[in-house]
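task queued by scheduler; priority normal; single chain, no ligands, no partner chains; default sampling; output format set to structure tokens
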Amino acid sequence: MEDSIISQRKAKADALRDRGDHPYANDFCPTHIAQELAARHAEHDLERLEALDVRVSVGGRVMAIRRMGKIVFLVLTDRSGQVQVNLFQDAVPQLDLERLELLDVGDIVGVEGRMMRTRRGELSVKASSFRILTKSLRPLPEKWHGLTDTETRYRQRYLDLIVNDEVRETFKIRSRIVSYLRRFFEDRDYLEVETPMLQPTYGGAAAKPFTTHHNSLDMKLYLRIAPELNLKRLVVGGLHRVFEINKNFRNEGISTRHNPEFTALEWYEAFATYEHLMAQTEELLLGLCEHIHGRDHVTLGGETLSFARPFRRLSVYDGLIQYAGIAPAEVEDHEALLAVAQRLHIAKAATMSLGYLQMAIFEATAEASLVQPTFVTDFPLDVSPLSRKKESNPRLVDRFELYVAGREIANGFSELNDPIDQRDRFSGQETQRAHGDEEAHPMDDDFIRALEYGMPPTGGEGIGVDRLVMLLTDSPSIRDVLFFPLLRPEA
């Protein structure tokens, strides 16, 4: 069926050529967009529009064609919205009327005319000329059923954007979110920077990288898993407030919350602590929520999430007691935690150190219950190789993660700037790598060298932009907020 339609439309494109019309023209420039016309003439009635005699030219995709006697009504969609076009048989040249016989839903057209209202009060463009600018060869999905197949929507995002207004709105909101994040830090005297995607040594997170090879230098390279170490090198160099909004890559599974390529915001501020970062994060997210929605809360999956300050704070220690039911005396008992982990069927629990056991149990029992914004604090030292030790308890670090709706949104800490301690931490991670932990942090001698020149006391944080967009657009899957999510090849 589709092949037949394509053949018919190719024939119409040939007919346009035979008439001297280029079916893929590039010589039409609209003077107005739909949203502008609707706003400018919202209060103008039929008589007022006739008196004003507003001349316009509009261009867009034909989403509907309706013929009523000697009038043809078109609904055009441009980048801002929809506008109705009315073609009266006695108001357009015969040539343009003949072009209408070659028109299909999905074609992109250019129309010149003047503003009017129909008897029903619909704001419209009364056409004086009409052209097909781009001939669409494939039919759009049928109007009443639309594009509902999820796989097709993700794989053919261009089609999804054409037919689903709410999808376009989601991505417009995403753009506004990124713009707000950028302004937030620029207004606070941060410098936006870009650091390499290709790295000879990866680091800054616990993750497995993608690997590649540079032919000319004959060297192995990695797609970065995080920009952290390079951003901290810049702090060493005297750029005391820096931020970056860019892509990270992690060779991991795909789920509703994970895509191997994702966007992250990271920022670092000299002479700031993790306490300062938590306050800053509250300010950032509350302001962003109010900017996007005009209020301090959002709805996600029917649940109301409030970004009113202050956010709840919960230590890992208290979370294990409250959500895993572990007795206070057993929170730091390796054998007791191992028994709990085995009951929870946590993989490789027998090979985990105390800190890794604590976090594995916390993730299995507590995370899903952290619905309202919650800062999880006081992480174990051994799972935090880049964080500063807690003065009051050196087995812990000055670190937090922000959870909303059971999802990790942010990770921040007071940065470790002691080069001797950092080398020891990296050495410990190397030992874990030797025992099969593919996500353990590799040694980075140059980063140690940078710290040896002296990095001021610093706080740093990363936020997953895609997950943040999910929260603010009530999107159940990360694929809903990525233009082109990674998918398996088509069968």
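post-processing summary
- The two ends are 21 Å apart (CA to CA).
- Residues 37 and 83 are 8 Å apart (CA to CA).
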